[in-house]
Design goal:
The structure is a homopentamer. Chain A is an alpha+beta fold. Chain A folds into 2 domains: 3-131 and 256-264, Apc35880, domain 1 (Alpha-Beta Plaits), CATH 3.30.70; 137-250, Alpha-Beta Plaits, CATH 3.30.70. Helix content of chain A is 39%, strand content 24%. The first copy, chain A, has 9 helices and 9 strands. In chain A, helix 1 runs parallel beside helix 3 and helix 7 (177-191) runs antiparallel to helix 8 (222-233). The termini of chain A are close together. The A-B interface holds A 37, 39, 43, 48, 50, 101-103, 105-110, 112-114, 119-120, 123-126, 128, 130, 170-171, 173-174, 204-210, 212 and B 49, 52, 83, 85-90, 159-160, 162, 164, 217, 222-223, 225-226, 228-230, 233-234, 236, 238-239, 241, 245-248, 250, 252, 262, 265.
C-alpha cells in the first residue's frame, strides 16, 4: 500500500469509527444485563486469512458496515465485545449478546455473518444460556446472603473476562434438592473471599447447547480469579463436573471499535 | 455490485422464489410426518466461503435450481427446513427429511449436492432414525395416556427446533423390559408439565448412525424446553445416557425460501 | 458450459461408461468373497471442491481413467462400490476391496489416488480386516448351525450396506474361550430372526487398524437391520464393546459406473 | 529466484538479522523469569503454506518487522523462543512469554499476529499459567530442601525444552492439604536424582486454560528427562493426573533470529 | 503435458533417481539400528493437493533435491521409509529416523520441510522414543531367553511395517517391579510363537510425546502379526493399556526412491 493510500485509510477509520455512540438505550440495556429470563449467547469468531488480501480501504468499509449494524441492533439487544486474540486458541474475538429471545440474537448474528466482514468470519463456538433467579441462594444463611451483595464501589470496568461452560454428571441431578443446596452453600462459601474482585454471572444452558451451565467471570485481578477457581475445585460439588471448560475462553473486555480497528488496519 | 445489477438480482429473487407453493400433496405429507415406519433424516449443512465469490446473479440462479429440485421431490418425501446460522456451530441450515425409504432421502440429498449451490455445501452432520409405535406408552396408566394426548389447539407453528441425539449405555439395554418401562414412566411423568408447549418426536437410530435415538423438539417457549430437559436430567433413566447431544442442533423453523434468500442476497 | 459442449460430454459418458463389463473373472472373485484368509479393506473417500472447477470434459476423461484402472485390477482383486453421499458424513463413496494380500490393495488404491480423479479424493477412513473360519460356531448346537445356513433364495442383490467397526474391552479378551463361546451363542441366538433379510460378514482387524472387528451388513430391509442391532445391544456380549461405530458407514450398493457418473456430470 | 535476487536476499538477511541485540534489560528480565506472581504463556504457532508463495525479499522484510517488534516489547516482557518443527505435530515454533500481566502478553501477541509474517501464522496452542511460591516445599525435610537447591554450575544453556500441561482429577483437590503434601514429598523424592540435569518450572493455570498446571522442562540430557518422567509416573500422585500432555510440546531452545531465518530463506 | 515434455520428465527421473546408493555407511547405520540409547522417531507426512499443480518437471527437480538431502544426512542418521498411502488415513508416507540425538533428527526433518517438496508436506504425526536394554528379559527363564534369540535366517527384508503407540494406565506404573516382570513374562510367552515371522522393536517414549511406548513391527505374514496382537490382547498386561494405537500406522517398507517416484510422476 502506498503512503497516500495509507493516509486515506487512516482518515476513513477516523471518520467511520471515531464517533461511535454505543449502546443506544442504557435503561433497556441495564434490564437485559440484570434481569432473569434473558438469553445470553457467547459467540467466538475467527477471521479467515483471506481477509488480509482485501485492500485496506475495503477492510475499512467492511468494518464500518459492521459498526452500523451493531448500532441498529443495540436498540433491542445488548452486545458486548471481547478480544480473545493472543489468549484463546482459534478465536479472535467474542461477542456476548443478551436478548429477550434467541431469535433476536440469531437475527443479529445472521446479519453480522452476511456483511462483507462477516463472510470472512468463522464461528468457532456458540454457547447459549438463560438467566434465572438464584436457585439455592434463598435458603442460604442470612450472613452469607449479605456477603453475597455486590460491593457498592463496583462501578469500575473490569479488564478480563473468562467463560467456562460446565456439564454436571447424572449423579448431580439425581441428588435431592436439599443435598444440592448444601453442596452449593459449601461452594458459595469457598467463593466469598473473591466477591469483591471477581464478578460472576451464571447462565443455565441444558438443552440449548451441550452444557448445563455457562459460568462467566470478569476481573481486574486474574490471580484472584485463578485462586477462586482453585478454591472451587476443592469443594465436593466439583466432583460432579463431568466437563469443565473445553473450551475455556479467556479475553480482555474491549469496545468493539477497538477490536474492529485491529482488523481495519 | 452496481445498482442496476442489484435491482436485477432483486427481481430475479422475487420471480424465482416469490411464488413458492410447497409442499405439493398435503395428505401424503401428513402420513409421512405422523406414521410409524417412516425414516427421518437430519442433514446439517454449512456454506463454504467460495460461495460468496459468485456474482449475485449466479447465486440467484443457483438458488432457483434448488427451489425446483425441492418442488420435484416434495411429491415423494417431506422436507422441512431450519436456520441454524447464528445458533449452532459449524452449520448454516438443516433439513429434516421424512421418506418411506432412506434411498429416497439419499436420492434427494445427492441431487441437492449436485446442484450449483450444492457444490458449495459441506455436510456437517447426518443423523438417521426410524419412527415406531410408542414402545412403553401402551403399559402406562390410563391417566398418563390421556395426559399424553396432543393438545387440541396445537395448530400454530412453532418457532424453535432442537435436535438432541442420544446413545444409551450397555446397562440400559441389559435391563429387562419391565424395568425399562418403569423408568420410562418416571421419565414421561417428568415431561408431562411441558406437553402443551414443547412438541416432541422420537426416532430410533441404532445401527443407522452412532446413536440409539434422535430426540426432536419444537417449541415457542425455549425456557419451557430448557426446563423440560432439566426435569429429564433428574430422573433415573438419564444415568443411562452415555452420550447426550454432541451435537446439539438448535435453530429456528423457517421456510426454505427464507433460508435460500439469505444465500442469494 | 454451452449446449454443444454438454452434448459432447454426454456422448463421452455414454462411450466411456456405457459398455462396462466388471468384474472380469467371476470364479476368482467368488473365492475372494467367500474364503477365509482374505484381506478386506473399506476405503471411504470424499471428493474435494476443486473437482467441480474442472470442465465437464476433463471430468469425463478423468472418470474413464478410473474405469480402466478398475478393469485392470479386477483380474486380481474384488472391488465393490457404495454410494455414501447423502447418508454418511464426510464421505461420498466407499470401496470394499478383497485381496489375497494388503499389498495388492495398496497397489490398487495408490494407483487410484494417482489418477487425475484421485488427486481430488480425500481418504477419510481406511479399515482393514482378515476373514477367518468361524471361531465359535463349530461348538454351537446343531439346530443353531442349521439355522445359520444362508437362505437358498439369497440370489437377489441387496440395496443397503452398513459398516460398523468394533473394539472390545480388555475384559472380553481376558474371558476364557468357553465363556466367550457361550456369550457368542447368546449373541447369535438374538441375530437368528434376521438371518433371511440381513446378510452379515465379519472381518478380524486387531493390529491392522484401531479396531478388533469390522462388521459388515447388507440388507433390503433397513428396519430389520435396525431391529437386529437393537437385539444385539440387549445381549451380555454388548457390554464388552468399548467402541461401536465411530464411524458407522451407511450407504447404498451401487455399480461404480453409476457412482462415477455422478462425478462426471 | 535468480542468482542476483538470491544474493540480495542473503544480504538483506545479514543486515536485518545479523546485529540483533536481544533482550534489552537483563535485570527486569531476570525478575520476570524468577519471581512469583508472573504470568507465563506458551504460544505455539504454525506457518501456513501461503507464506512460501511470497518472494524471498518479501519474507526477509516480513521477518525484520517481527525482529523490530520483539525488540520493542523486550523492554517490558521476557520472550523466549523454541523450534518445534520436526519434533512436535502441527507446530513450527513456540514462544514462552513472561509478563507482569496477561494483557501485556496479549498486546504483544496481537501485534505479532498483525505483522506481515503474523498473518501467515496459525496459533495452534495457547497455555497460560501463574508462577507462585512453592506450595508444599516449605514443609519438606531440611535434607530435601537442601537437595532441591539449583546446582551452582547451572550457568550453561540447555538444548531441549518440553511443555507438559496437567489436569488433576477431582479426588486430588478433595484430599486435605497434609495428604497432598505427603504425596508431593514422594513425588519430589522421585525427581531428586535428576535435579542437576533437568531444570523444572511450574505454572498454575486453573481457570486460565483447560489445565491445572503447566510443567516446563529444560535439559541437555533428554534420556534423563525421560527417566524423570518415568520415575514420576511411578508415584501415587500420578494416579490423580486426569490429563497429562495432550499436547506434549517438545522442541529445542533457539534464538528467535535462528528460527526466523528458517522462514526468511 | 505434451509427449515431448513427458519424455523429458521420464529421463530426468531416470537420471536423478536411478543411481541412488543409500545409505552411505553400513557400520554406523547398523549400530544406530541395534544399540540402546538411540532415539527413534516416526514421522508421517501427507502431500498437499497443491503439489499436483506443479509441472512434472518441477516435481522431478523437487524430488531430486530431497534425494540429495537424504544422502547427505545418511552419514549421521539412519533413515528408513514406508509407503502408508492406501493403508493409513491421512498419511502418504512415513520416515523412521534413528539418531544419536533428537536434535540431529530435527535438523534433518527441518531441512526436509524446507525443500521445495517439503513445503507441500503436512506432518500428521510425530512419535519419538528411546531404545533401551531389555528391562524385564534378564529375569526370564533361560529357555525363554533362548527362544527370544532372533532366528538365524532373518536376513530377508520384510514387506509390512506397523507402528502402535501405547500409553499405560497409572495402575501399571504403581505395580512393583516383580509384578510387572511376571506380567511381562506372560506377555512374552504369548508372543513366542510369532518370533520367527514378526520382528518387534520397542521404543520408550514417556515425556517425549503423549505415549509411554512405541511398538514397531515388521512382517511378511500380516496374518501372523494379527494373531500376535490377538494373543497379546488376551494376557493380563493388556488391561493396563489406557491407549493402544490412535494412531495405528500400517504401511509397506519401501526404498525412498520408489516412494518419491510416486510423487514425481
Amino acid at each position: 500500500m502506498k503512503a497516500a493510500s495509507t493516509m486515506r485509510v487512516a482518515m476513513l477509520v477516523a471518520l467511520l469509527l471515531g464517533a461511535a455512540v454505543w449502546p443506544a438505550r442504557a435503561a433497556d440495556r441495564e434490564a437485559l444485563l440484570t434481569q432473569p429470563g434473558v438469553y445470553g449467547s457467547f459467540a467466538a469468531f475467527q477471521m479467515d486469512h483471506d481477509w488480509w488480501d482485501l485492500t485496506g480501504e475495503a477492510r475499512v468499509i467492511a468494518v464500518s458496515e459492521v459498526k452500523g449494524l451493531i448500532e441498529q441492533f443495540s436498540q433491542k439487544i445488548a452486545i458486548e465485545s471481547y478480544l480473545l486474540r493472543g489468549l484463546s486458541d482459534h478465536a479472535d474475538f467474542m461477542l456476548r449478546v443478551h436478548a429477550p429471545a434467541l431469535s433476536d440474537t440469531q437475527q443479529f448474528l445472521t446479519s453480522l455473518l452476511g456483511t462483507r466482514l462477516g463472510r470472512h468470519l468463522v464461528a468457532t463456538s456458540y454457547l447459549h444460556g438463560l438467566t434465572k433467579q438464584a436457585v439455592y441462594a434463598p435458603g442460604f444463611p442470612e450472613q452469607m446472603k449479605k456477603a453475597l451483595q455486590p460491593p457498592a464501589n463496583d462501578a469500575g470496568a473490569k479488564s478480563y473476562a473468562v467463560v467456562i461452560p460446565i456439564r454436571k454428571d447424572a449423579e448431580w441431578w439425581a441428588l435431592d434438592q436439599d443435598t444440592r443446596a448444601a453442596l452449593m452453600q459449601e461452594h458459595t462459601q469457598a467463593a466469598l473471599p473473591y466477591i469483591n474482585t471477581v464478578k460472576r454471572k451464571l447462565y443455565h444452558s441444558s438443552g440449548l447447547d451441550d452444557f448445563d451451565f455457562i459460568t462467566y467471570f470478569e476481573t481486574d485481578k486474574l490471580d484472584d480469579f485463578h485462586s477462586l477457581i482453585r478454591a472451587l475445585e476443592q469443594v465436593k460439588e466439583y466432583r460432579h463436573d463431568r466437563r469443565f471448560g473445553h473450551p475455556t475462553l479467556l479475553g480482555t473486555i474491549r469496545p468493539l471499535d477497538d477490536i474492529l480497528e485491529l482488523f481495519a488496519r
